[in-house]
């Protein structure tokens, strides 16, 4: 979407495929008569086009405690505010300082990182792990380090933006397959025999909330000698050690897991888990790892504390599953695999109106509409986290029931 264009500036609305809403602005980057519009004109035009298309995004800062029932975030187990997690972060900052101080290969690898990596690997049943400063970096690193122009990447149509960007940066040949279509994955791999291939999936899809057929995908990958990369951002924690583990796929040499520390683990950062040879390859070649400062001590310690809590308190994940199942049945939609319930709405306007009405009732939910959703269906995204009390949850469900039921 950001490729420079040479045509005259245009006001046409962004295409549906344009996730950031900037496709239509490419033309504003230059002109055929050689005169480049001044940057401030270009920016004003870009803002105007976004506004006209109703696609302006705004940051809405929240206070530390705004009294809202938050069903929009990803702090699924409610651990970001757990006292042990907060204390661990504070103590680590006091002991190690505010930052890691350097990239991991210079002096930015702390014993704290090694502790976190060992404990994450042990929990997820993987032989090795590597921590990153974000889950986004973890995904950029895996694809970038393992795929180049000569490689073939087979990606689910609903894969997260970080993996989309990772494939773009890698310049690998790409086949996008329909969502959860194992036969299409098999056909894509069979079409390029002998080419080094990666298959990308999320264990639980971030917006749709459904689950990938991991066992079947792994089987197809084995048949064709491909590597399966599973993003467990929404699986780890909500499903204990994740769905790769639950499907008996942990520790295999042809399966790699990426994870984030910023959702169920209530911190910030990411991780890649898998065979030691793959992890070693990342340390040596992954640019978003090599040229990035190590994960901050406070974030590392918070994730470590949260890992210990998540491991020893499976009832938190049980609460999520009970809540999400109850809400799904109220809407007559299938129970999702993770903590996220995706409620399809009749129109973008209906979705936006329901979100605003819920906010007025003290309940915050997410709202997705085109072009952020590849299938064009506007939806509310409700997170059934364990971090809210039973009373708050019941109050929120009542409001959702009334408001969403009315406008859907
Ligand atoms: N993968 C998926 C599926 C995600 O939902 C996210 C976060 N939105 C990421 C990766 C990126 O993780 P992080 O926020 O830690 O960068």
Automatic annotation (TrEMBL):
The record's region (Disordered) falls at 1-39
Write out the entry's keywords from A to Z. Biotin biosynthesis, Pyridoxal phosphate, Transferase
Q: Please give the InterPro entries that the UniProt record associates with this protein.
A: Aminotrans_II_pyridoxalP_BS, Aminotransferase_I/II_large, AON_synthase_class-II, PyrdxlP-dep_Trfase, PyrdxlP-dep_Trfase_major, PyrdxlP-dep_Trfase_small
Cofactor(s) listed = pyridoxal 5'-phosphate
What range(s) does the Aminotransferase class I/classII large domain occupy? 68-400
Q: Which residues form a coiled coil?
A: none
Q: Which reaction does it catalyse?
A: 6-carboxyhexanoyl-[ACP] + L-alanine + H(+) = (8S)-8-amino-7-oxononanoate + holo-[ACP] + CO2
State whether keyword Transmembrane helix applies.
Answer: no
What Enzyme Commission number does this protein have? 2.3.1.47
**What's one Pfam family the UniProt record gives for this protein?**
Aminotran_1_2
Task: State which residue ranges cross the membrane.
Answer: none
* Superkingdom field: Bacteria
- UniProt pathway: Cofactor biosynthesis; biotin biosynthesis
Give the family, as the similarity comment puts it. Answer: Belongs to the class-II pyridoxal-phosphate-dependent aminotransferase family. BioF subfamily.
Share what the entry says about its subunit structure, partners included.
Homodimer.
Task: Name it.
Answer: 8-amino-7-oxononanoate synthase
Species this chain originates from: Nocardioides luteus
Protein's gene = bioF
């Amino acid at each position: 979407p950001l490729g420079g264009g040479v045509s005259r500036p245009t006001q046409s609305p962004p295409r549906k495929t344009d996730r950031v809403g900037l496709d239509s602005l490419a033309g504003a980057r230059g002109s055929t008569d050689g005169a480049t519009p001044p940057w401030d004109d270009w920016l004003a035009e870009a803002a105007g086009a976004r506004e006209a298309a109703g696609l302006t995004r705004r940051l809405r800062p929240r206070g530390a405690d705004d009294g809202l029932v938050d069903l929009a975030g990803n702090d699924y187990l409610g651990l970001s505010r757990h006292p042990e997690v907060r204390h661990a972060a504070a103590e680590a900052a006091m002991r190690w300082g505010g930052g890691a101080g350097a990239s991991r290969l210079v002096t930015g690898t702390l014993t704290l990182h090694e502790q976190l990596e060992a404990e994450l690997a042990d929990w997820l049943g993987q032989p090795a792990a590597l921590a990153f400063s974000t889950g986004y970096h973890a995904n950029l690193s895996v694809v970038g380090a393992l795929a180049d122009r000569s490689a073939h990447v087979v990606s689910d149509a609903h894969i997260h933006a970080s993996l989309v960007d990772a494939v773009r940066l890698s310049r690998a040949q790409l086949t996008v397959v329909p969502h959860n279509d194992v036969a299409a994955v098999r056909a894509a791999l069979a079409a390029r025999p002998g080419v080094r291939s990666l298959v990308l999936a999320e264990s639980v899809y971030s917006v749709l909330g459904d689950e990938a057929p991991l066992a079947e995908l792994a089987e197809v990958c084995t048949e064709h000698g491909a590597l399966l990369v599973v993003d467990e951002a929404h699986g780890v924690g909500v499903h204990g050690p994740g769905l790769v583990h639950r499907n008996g796929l942990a520790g295999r040499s042809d399966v790699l897991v990426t994870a984030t520390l910023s959702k169920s683990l209530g911190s910030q950062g990411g991780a890649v888990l898998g065979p030691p040879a793959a992890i070693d390859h990342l340390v040596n070649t992954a640019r978003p790892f090599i040229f990035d400062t190590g994960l901050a001590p406070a974030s590392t310690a918070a994730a470590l504390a949260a890992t210990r809590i998540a491991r020893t308190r499976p009832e938190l994940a049980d609460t999520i599953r009970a809540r999400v199942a109850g809400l799904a049945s109220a809407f007559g939609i299938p129970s999702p695999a993770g903590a996220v319930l995706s409620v399809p709405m009749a129109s973008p306007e209906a979705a936006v109106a329901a979100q605003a009405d819920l906010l007025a009732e003290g309940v915050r939910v997410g709202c997705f509409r085109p072009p952020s959703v590849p299938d064009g269906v506007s939806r509310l995204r409700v997170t059934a986290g364990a971090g809210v009390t039973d009373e708050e949850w019941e109050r929120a469900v009542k409001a959702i029931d009334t408001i969403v039921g009315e406008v859907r």
